């Protein structure tokens, strides 16, 4: 275990390019400075800096700026938009050290993970820069002589983007890059826990040549900003990543204006290990899926199901790996688990662990004495479906392990939740691989892998885990409308 730094961290002085740290909203190309909300370092509780708490008026100004910029941006050729996005992509790579440090300072994840997120986020910009050149339509054979029908792909319009704190860089690029590639303009509302990563992207976007008003960033509390975005008839699409409860509320607020919506919501991913699995591969996958970002990911393994024949060896192997994890301030070398985002997150994690222990689970990892804001990574054996984690997302470094006997039992447990974002399973039986994978009620399946997110692949859930897809060709379709154009008299 490492001990977190206790002194206030002067983030600006540590950056190679201090201009990347902005304490102002970005509206129509201008930095609107009214920094009245603190941004907290989750590792120490110290104030990193401040940001504006934008009002409805400022949010409306951002919407108006996006609307005014829309005609000229959509009129650019696909190749022009692609070139600008590629310039933005290159700037992210050029400034990876600063972007990662900003991310770690406000979110907490270890620097190595933060750099990985910057690369991951940039990959969406590159992918959709390439996709911009491939937006096309079709010619439909007409049933009437002398007539032609064209199906044209056009940008949706002004888009509102609401992003979470757990991936404050990549959740923006995954949404914004396809929208910009399609010819849409944006109003981004980042999490009030992690605004600086979004604002740094805004700095680089301007340097890349994204025109004033095309990309706007409003910071602050979600209630007033969100109500303005959802209530505006000018905003034609909303993309949100967050909880199912908030997603449902946003959908209700968007209903009167019939906005197009993309919702990536809660998950309760099962991680299933069959007796015939490669044990080492399964353990590596469990560590990656469960403990990446301290378990604070939407596709995090929330329930680990292990078949009886391999159960005891898996539990022992996972416990040894978890006991070896280094917990501490993400800015310290070698740290693998940083702080949780806030006290409420830690309270939920501790409540889930206490509930499991009260209902018969056994802790198989050594307890640690950790400072406030740091969750103790734990493996629990003897978990059951009667425990809170079975129906709730823990969002922390807790690995509850359920023993199962048959494939049918594993499938029933895996699908026995209202959520359907991701699922993972390990087997060397290819007949089972297809049979079981197709029966899982999720949008993302990982077979013998703990990683299920790439720019090239569609990402999204079913059931209460959301609507729409991000990434891949599907990602840009979310920002396009199809217009049927009928020509007669030919």
From TrEMBL:
The active site is at 264. Residues 31-484 form the Aldehyde dehydrogenase domain. It holds the Pfam family Aldedh. It is an enzyme of class 1 (oxidoreductase). Its EC number is 1.2.1.16. PROSITE patterns: ALDEHYDE_DEHYDR_CYS, ALDEHYDE_DEHYDR_GLU. GO terms for molecular function: succinate-semialdehyde dehydrogenase (NAD+) activity. InterPro entries: Ald_DH/histidinol_DH, Ald_DH_C, Ald_DH_CS_CYS, Ald_DH_CS_GLU, Ald_DH_N, Aldehyde_DH_dom, Aldehyde_DH_Superfamily, Succ_semiAld_DH. Keywords: Oxidoreductase. One of its GO terms (cellular component) is cytosol. One of its GO terms (biological process) is gamma-aminobutyric acid catabolic process. Coiled coil: none annotated. NCBIfam families: SSADH. PANTHER family: SUCCINATE-SEMIALDEHYDE DEHYDROGENASE, MITOCHONDRIAL. Belongs to the aldehyde dehydrogenase family. This is Succinate-semialdehyde dehydrogenase. It comes from Thioclava dalianensis.
């Amino acid at each position: 275990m490492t001990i977190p730094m206790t002194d206030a961290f002067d983030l600006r002085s540590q950056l190679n390019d201090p201009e990347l740290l902005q304490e102002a909203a970005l509206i129509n190309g201008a930095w609107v400075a009214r920094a009245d909300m603190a941004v907290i370092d989750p590792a120490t509780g110290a104030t990193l800096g401040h940001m504006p708490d934008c009002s409805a008026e400022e949010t409306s100004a951002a919407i108006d700026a996006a609307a005014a910029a829309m005609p000229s941006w959509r009129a650019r050729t696909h190749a022009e938009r692609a070139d600008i996005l590629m310039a933005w992509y290159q700037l992210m790579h050029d400034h990876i050290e600063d972007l990662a440090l900003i991310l770690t300072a406000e979110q907490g994840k270890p620097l190595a993970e933060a750099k990985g997120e910057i690369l991951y986020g940039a990959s969406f910009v590159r992918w959709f820069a390439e996709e911009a050149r491939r937006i096309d339509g079709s010619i439909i054979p007409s049933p009437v002589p002398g007539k032609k029908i064209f199906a044209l792909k056009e940008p949706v319009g002004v888009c509102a983007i609401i992003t979470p704190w757990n991936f404050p860089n990549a959740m923006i690029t995954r949404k914004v890059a396809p929208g910009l590639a399609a010819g849409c303009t944006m109003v981004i509302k980042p999490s009030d826990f992690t605004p600086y990563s979004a604002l740094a992207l805004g700095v680089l976007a301007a340097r890349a040549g994204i025109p004033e008003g095309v990309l706007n960033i409003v910071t602050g509390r979600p209630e007033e900003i969100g109500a303005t975005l959802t209530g505006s008839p000018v905003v034609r699409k909303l993309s949100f990543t967050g909880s199912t409860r908030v997603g449902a509320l946003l959908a209700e607020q968007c209903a009167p204006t019939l906005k197009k919506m993309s919702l990536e919501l809660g998950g309760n991913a099962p991680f299933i290990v069959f007796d015939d699995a490669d044990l080492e591969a399964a353990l590596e996958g469990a560590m990656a899926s469960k403990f990446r970002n301290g378990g604070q990911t939407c596709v995090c393994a929330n329930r680990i199901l292990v078949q009886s024949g391999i159960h005891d060896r898996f539990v022992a192997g996972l416990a040894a790996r978890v006991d070896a994890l280094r917990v501490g301030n993400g800015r310290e070398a070698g740290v693998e688990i940083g702080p949780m985002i806030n006290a409420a997150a830690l309270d939920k994690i501790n409540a889930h662990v206490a509930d499991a222990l009260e209902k018969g689970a056994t802790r198989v990892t050594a307890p640690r004495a950790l400072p406030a804001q740091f969750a103790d990574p734990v493996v629990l054996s003897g978990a059951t479906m009667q425990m809170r984690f079975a129906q709730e997302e823990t969002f922390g470094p807790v690995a509850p392990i359920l023993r199962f006997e048959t494939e049918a039992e594993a499938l029933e447990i895996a699908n026995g939740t209202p959520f359907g974002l991701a699922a993972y399973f390990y087997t060397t039986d290819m007949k089972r691989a297809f049979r079981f994978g197709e029966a899982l009620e999720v949008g993302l399946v990982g077979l013998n892998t703990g990683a299920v997110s790439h720019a090239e692949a569609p990402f999204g859930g079913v059931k209460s885990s959301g609507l729409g897809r991000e990434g891949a060709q599907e990602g840009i379709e979310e920002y396009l409308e199809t217009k049927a154009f009928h020509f007669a008299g030919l």
